[in-house]
Design a protein that fits this description.
Helices cover 43% and strands 14% of the residues. The radius of gyration is 25 Å and the shape is globular. The strands form six sheets. Strands 2-4-7-6-5 form a five-stranded mixed β-sheet, with helices on both faces. It is built from 21 helices and 18 strands. It has four domains: 148 residues, DNA polymerase, domain 1, CATH 1.10.150.110; 89 residues, Beta Polymerase, domain 2 (2-Layer Sandwich), CATH 3.30.460; 75 residues, Beta Polymerase, domain 3 (2-Layer Sandwich); 196 residues, Alpha-Beta Barrel (TIM Barrel).
Amino acid sequence: MKSNAAAAAAFHEIADLLDVLGEKFKPEAYRRAARSIESLTEDLGAVAARDQLREIPGVGQAIEEKIREFLRDGTIPYLEKLRAEIPAGVVAMMRVEGLGPKTARKFWTDLGVESPNALLEAIDAGRLAGVKGFGPVKIAKIRTALGAAASSQSRRPLLQAALVAEQIVATLKERSPVTQIEIAGSFRRRRETVGDLDILVTSSEPEKVLDAFAALEGATIVLRGPTKETIRTRDGLQVDLRVLAPESFGAALQYFTGSKDHNVATRSLARDRGLKINEYFVVRGEERLPSSTEAEIYRSIGLPWIPPEIREARGEIEAARAGTLPVLLEPGDLVAELHLHVRPSDGAAELAALARSAGDAGLRTLGLIPGSHEEFDRLVAWAHGRSSPSIRVGWERPYGAELPKFSTAPAFHVLSANGLEPPAQADSEPLDPGSWVGHFGSDPDTPAGPERLAAWSRWAVAAKCPLELTPSPGYDGLDAVSARRLVEGGGAVVVSELGVGPERPRALAVGTARRAWITRSSVLNAAAWPGP
């Protein structure tokens, strides 16, 4: 089966290659189709079999033909033709920060430079000196960007980005006069991986905020203006900071949160009402409408506020217009944490502290998982009779492995997929009551990862087995697209923060659930499950 992710990657590549060739309109058409394919909650092949490819946003006759070629042959002749025309290194140049397709094309056609390394050699040899549009400052920025691109990862897991974001926000609050601060972009939408961070603030003293940002430990300044600054962290993550006037904060937050397709839809609605929305204001003619909050932006186009996690042009605009937006899961809806591994060194005092932390976090049930048979017996004895929260002792085992014999049955079982494909048949293994599957071990940023997660979702619907959502989608829990597929098929999830009490992991795990349009009713531990 050809994966949705692989098909989307092929169309993204077509768009990149057309950009380098100087095409003006075709690249965005292919990118829109690619984003729509990425967001499908069912297999592309199934849509093709029903002859409904044209119902996918952005798919017309020409792209439909190429999808069918991909599904049939695993490749697209048009893509192969473009690959033969353009050196792969030219596409890599286009992706370097600050270059883009026009500049990459210029280096290729005018200077014969065909890769980032060749461009760096050209700079060192002085070949860019005197080239129109490339003064010393710009050449220096390109050199910096080439070095950063060589050392940085393209995208990184959401939880890893959250650690950086949390520290930057805390430092800016402590060391600069910010009045409002939010992280926008794909991070706010809780995408499984993050390419960079966009931080928006309001302040009456922008210069002091920018100074504090530049002084972050390990930061390298990429560029700086009166109200915007870009840095790279020590490990290569790009972070953009924008200082805004309070009256523009809502418009900027909506604009920089995205997604691009969602913003295209909202701006189309604005045009229908004789309005324009930009990153600073909603405008009617020369009049600026209230733009200090996101609610005002959406109200101006006749919509209620739409949660950022579902702003992906996957039906949220239509639901908002119809008044049918779901009431998405909130962190406070979780009343049980059921996936907390206990160390052998955790004695009665440490366990009691865990229980207090769980109670302080509003949990009514705490599920502990030991690492050995002996530890299981110890935890069962310690947990007996405890309440506020009640304690349940479970067991984790690889999917398909035999369950050890216990004198007291585990209260629940976490079955680890560990990179495996799901069973061919839903009833291939009897499932104990109170069991679910997690620890998928699938990289969500590769074609194989999302396809494996999608297959587990299909299996779980048939097997009536819950699957897990965690702060690390793909590796430990489902990604949002697969989770939405599961819930729309009538399945359920267990949301695990993989710890007790920390706000960050719980918020990220719940964010993945919200991104999947999940409500409280589909989350088993939104009730004190398993047991009372």
